[in-house]
Amino acid sequence: MDVKNNLHNSKSNPRKLNLLYLGLLLFVTLLTTLYLASSKAIFAFSDWTFHAARVEEIYLNLKSGSFFTFIAARTFHNTGAASFLFYPYIFFYPWAFLRFILSPVNAFYAWYALVTFATATISYFSMKAYSKKSLASFILSLVYTFAPYRLYLGGAVFGEYLAVTFLPLLFLGIYEVLWGDKKKWYLLAISGALVAYAHILSVFLSLQFAVILFIIKLITSRGISKDRIKSLLLSAGVCVFLVLPVIVPFFTDFIGQGLSSAKPSISYTMGPRYLLLNSFSVQKGWKLSFMLMLTILTAWAFIKSRRNWIIYGLGLFACFLTTRYFPWKLTAGTPFEMVQLTARYLSYASLFLTILFALGSSSVLEEHVTGRKKLALSCSLAVFMALFSISSLSVYRDTLKHVQDMPKTSANSTQPAPFKRLRDYNYYNQFNYKILFGAFDYMPKSSLTSVQKQNSLLMHQAYLNGKTLTLSPLIKANQISYQVKSEKAADVDLPVIAYKHTTVSVNGQKHAFRRGNRGTVVIGLKRGQNTVTVGYKASPVFYLSIVISILSWLALLIYLVKFKAKYAQ
């Protein structure tokens, strides 16, 4: 069967058509990634140093034979910060594993390509399940995956970048439970879990739109059936079991421990004029693409169904949330301050508006294009999006040409990481700088009451008998050791953060400790030379949560296999 007949008979042989579209999506992914990777450099801006340090810790721990990472012993200036406990990192393991076979720069770009293609694939099949239209699904996947805001996230904001991968599946799950096939409740459970494993804040953002959709369902359908309520509760319950390893540390180590988190505040909003005009430039950034801006301006003229009006309204509302015209000041002191940057809503605006763009443009194209012309059209769309994305990324490439390499600094420097260029030969320089954003996240609040306290941690300063000592750490996975010599029995305040499940040993023997006024480990030492080791031992409840989570994933997989077999009959 030739290509023409393949495309013409796509309904009878959808698998080949799916492979064709996935092949084109892979082509765009590889072309855009190779464009970036050919620079052989990375621009370390925004959250880059925070996430790169986390990946480095995971990689070094894996290299030493430890699969789990709880505290930052090797990075974050050896402070023992527990960003790994409270900020999910499972999707960084592929990046860390790639470090074993590739150079640091190439490992990142290989991971970048994996996440990009995963986003394209998930968005394609999610739209296919929603619309039953292959061309519309292909268009959505192209426009959503290579949207300017997502390209911006892919440079450094990796928690949100990963969460965006699963948003199409998440909203498909919400749609199925509220309006579609309620027996597919598992889509919501799985996608909700995947978003939680990527970025906790994105769960909060997604819940806002889920509540809006639930209210719309109640109004438009004049209520909701008991079966749909059961499906909704079932998906929520299963999702909790799937993400227990993310949830449990907050109960065992965070609540009631006086720990800090990312500072809640609305620090930046955009004006509508900025959003409108900026979206017609080709650069990546805090904006929509010109295709989606045109959708906002014209979609009202051809929308006919109530369902599409709802999607249009959600897209407009998401755009409204990014602007200063939304009364964000009224959210002061509420959980909504956790949003921090209102530009985060652009991911949701992009998804909703791209659905309309894909449905509208595909309907017009399919009326005039059939057979072999459809293949030419699909290839043309792929090439266009590749060129459009490369144009969006060109400023990033130009920056890499002109910005200076990140210079060396002392191992205990308090200088914030500068926005500089990283190559393979200077990649490790970044870890000696203070992490620009997130260096003190999830530390005790008492650690942050003064710059002096913060800097003392970064500089490995301990306090013994009223004197300041600068110590050199000996590092293992989740473990930091110091050699401390005292002329008499005294308390020593070490530059390592104390958490609920922190462990301390002196000369190989378990030792009691308390939390000092820096939020650090304070212990009483005997006279003489002592080897003090600070580590972290996770609660048994945490390991139990992993077992329950794995069993839940396996049980869900078995259910899906049986469900699919029954559904096929």
Account of the 3D structure:
- The structure is a single chain.
- The chain is of the alpha+beta class.
- 54% of the residues lie in helices and 10% in strands.
- The chain has helices at 3-8, 14-37, 48-63, 83-86, 93-98, 104-131, 134-145, 148-153, 158-178, 186-198, 200-220, 226-242, 244-254, 272-278, 290-298, 306-321, 346-368, 372-402, 451-458, 540-568, and strands spanning 42-44, 420-422, 461-464, 467-470, 474-476, 479-486, 490-497, 502-506, 509-510, 514-515, 520-525, 528-536.
- The strands form 3 sheets. A 5-stranded antiparallel sheet has the order 4-3-7-11-10. It has a 5-stranded antiparallel sheet with strand order 5-6-12-8-9, with no helix packed on it.
- A hairpin with a 2-residue loop joins β3 (461-464) and β4 (467-470).
The stretches of 5 or more residues where confidence is low (pLDDT under 50) are 1-12
Q: Write down how many β-strands occur, each being a DSSP E stretch of 2 or more residues.
A: 12
H/I helix tally? 20
Shape: globular
What is the average per-residue confidence, as pLDDT, rounded to a whole number?
A: 92
Structural class: alpha+beta
The strand line-up of the biggest sheet is 4-3-7-11-10
Radius of gyration: 26 Å
Q: Indicate the percent of residues in helices.
A: 40-55%
Q: Report the sheet with the most strands, covering strand number, pairing sense and barrel closure.
A: 5 strands, antiparallel
Strand content: 5-15%
The end-to-end distance, rounded to whole angstroms, is 28 Å
Quick overview:
The chain has 569 residues and is α+β, with helices and mostly antiparallel strands.
